Structure formats: C-alpha cells, structure tokens
C-alpha cells in the first residue's frame, strides 16, 4: 500500500492545493478543458509530450478531486468527454493569472531554470 512521504495537512490550503492540482499535466488539462477541448484524443494532441496513460491517470485524479466530470456516451465506439465542475471553473482565473505571471517574467525564469540545470547536484557522502 502507498505510504505518503509528506503527510497531508488538511487544515492547510496550500497542502490541499498541492494535493489536487500538482502533477506535470494537471494544470494544462484544466486549461484545455476550459478552452473547450474535452475529448481524450484532443487533449493528447494538445499535450504531445505526455503519454496517454499519464493523461488518463491525471484526468482520473482530477475527477476524483471533483474538478472535472467524465461523461461517457452510450455508443459504439464509446465516446468520452470531460467537463469542468463548478469547483474546477473557479481554478481557471488562478491558472490564467499564473500563466500571465509566467509570460511577464519568462526571460528571468528561463535564465533561472537554465542556470539551475547547469549546477551539478551535490553529492552526499
């Protein structure tokens, strides 16, 4: 059974945010679903660096945390779409603000990231 390395503190809003939206592609998924891209294949085309499996896992986590709903249409082949819940919709202004902040500071952030990639990891003996 999975054991958490960092215990969740349910009284801390930042811990709760980390729990529900951290994941390499979760913010992208929420953003694209808000833009009207709702089918798994279309989401995969928007995020080509992510594997289908990882996207499915993260979509399932977003669904479990009640940020998206999954609609399965009874047809062959089965058609699946995702929609934001009311709670999920409240995250979109936050995601947009973070994107704008990143765009505003992208040169400084890019340099910091590149510099960090050049620093060799400390070896602990």
UniProtKB/TrEMBL annotation:
HTH hxlR-type domain location, by residue? 12-110
Domain of life of the source: Bacteria
Q: Which GO terms describe its molecular function?
A: DNA binding
Q: Which UniProt keywords apply?
A: DNA-binding, Transcription, Transcription regulation
Q: Which InterPro entries match?
A: HTH_HxlR (IPR002577), WH-like_DNA-bd_sf (IPR036388), WH_DNA-bd_sf (IPR036390)
Q: Does the keyword Zinc apply?
A: no
Keyword presence, DNA repair: no
Which SUPFAM superfamilies does the UniProt entry name for this protein?
A: Winged helix' DNA-binding domain
| Annotated protein name in UniProt | Transcriptional regulator
* Lineage, uppermost ranks: Bacteria, Pseudomonadati, Bacteroidota, Flavobacteriia, Flavobacteriales
């Amino acid at each position: 059974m999975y054991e958490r390395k960092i215990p969740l503190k349910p009284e801390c809003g930042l811990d709760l945010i980390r729990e529900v939206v951290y994941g390499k592609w979760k913010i992208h998924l929420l953003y694209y679903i808000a833009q009207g891209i709702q089918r798994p294949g279309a989401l995969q085309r928007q995020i080509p660096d992510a594997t289908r499996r990882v996207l499915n896992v993260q979509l399932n986590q977003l669904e479990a945390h009640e940020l998206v709903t999954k609609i399965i249409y009874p047809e062959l082949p089965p058609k699946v779409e995702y929609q934001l819940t009311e709670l999920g919709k409240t995250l979109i202004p936050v995601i947009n603000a973070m994107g704008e902040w990143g765009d505003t500071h992208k040169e400084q952030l890019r340099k910091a990231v590149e510099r960090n990639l050049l620093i060799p990891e400390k070896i602990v003996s």
